[in-house]
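Researcher: Here's the sequence for the chain we discussed earlier.
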Amino acid sequence: MPRIKVCCISSILEARLAIEAGASLIGLVSEMPSGPGVISDERVAEIADAVPPGVTSVLLTARTRADAIIEQHRRCRTNALQLVDALPAGEHRRLRDALPGIGIIQVLHVRGEEALREAEALASEGAVDALLLDSGNPGAAVKELGGTGRVHDWSISERLCRAVDLPVFLAGGLHSGNVAEAVRQVRPFGLDLCSGVRTECRLDAAKLGAFMQAVRSAG
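Model: Thanks. This is the structure I predict for it:
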């Protein structure tokens, strides 16, 4: 069964609900140019402190400079970082050196074949621990860096998973009605979800349970 990351967690109660349903990673969204689930760094730290051993707390950050990301992480104290925007050359290595033991997940927004080349370059550098394939648009007038609820081209994601020797999470418009197909086609290491398990911006236990059952049914 793929690892499940429930994102846009906004409270300790939501974190507990996700973990009880089977999530092994909890996504905590800091300041973003757009998208749902944003909470303060103080709230990120509060929830991260409550996450039990064996579950990974993940800070989603739109910052692109290592110094700023390091400073933010020291306030938030999560187990891992999810970098939702592209970083300049050398910044991943600076993060790795400054934050030993902290997982680094780089988001790639799949808009075409260029995602394959970006993934191969990141894998060859050895400076990230995992990739996450999402459906944003960093080139928009107001950057879309996640939480769009859109599905991207899974055929590209499938090829990317085979091409790189890194764990790959699949995100973007996943819900109980399409996740089994996504798992069978893409065969990702993990799944990342937000809007597909929410009702009026709140984590919905029934939708989350249906999603988990659909994942199990995919084999």
